[in-house]
Amino acid sequence: MIDPLFWLGLSLLLVSFSLFAVLLVTIPTLQEVGRAARSAEKLFDTLNREFPPTLEAIRLTGKEVGELTDDLNQGISNATGVVQQVDRGLVIAKQQVQQVQQSSFGLVAGAKAAWKVWRAPRADILNYSPPKNYSAEELKSNRDRQID
Length: 148
Known about the structure:
The chain is an all-alpha fold. It has helices at residues 4-119, 122-126, 136-147.
């Protein structure tokens, strides 16, 4: 068989060659990791400078949106009150118009009746006789004739 020292030497040579290859691959990888760490550090510094003002601006914006929402809700409730008042006013105006129409119809009818009386010949007025007092029997017979 071959000498064990030969195999030991060959094994050590292969292990050292493998370690050298790993070291050659590790060096550029570690350099890239270092660059990435520096970039991350710059990013974190930028975030530390920019985040507090940005967060404050977002907080203020949220507060302003809340105030605008409250103002909008108050405006809507005021507009609702105005609409209700206008609606009540329209209902009252409609009722008043109906009352005026009824009054004007009565006024027109009265004016027509007065015009007819005023323009009527005086003979009708002079020949006026008061209504006759009917007995109960005459009223009953008149009523029976009207029903038939």
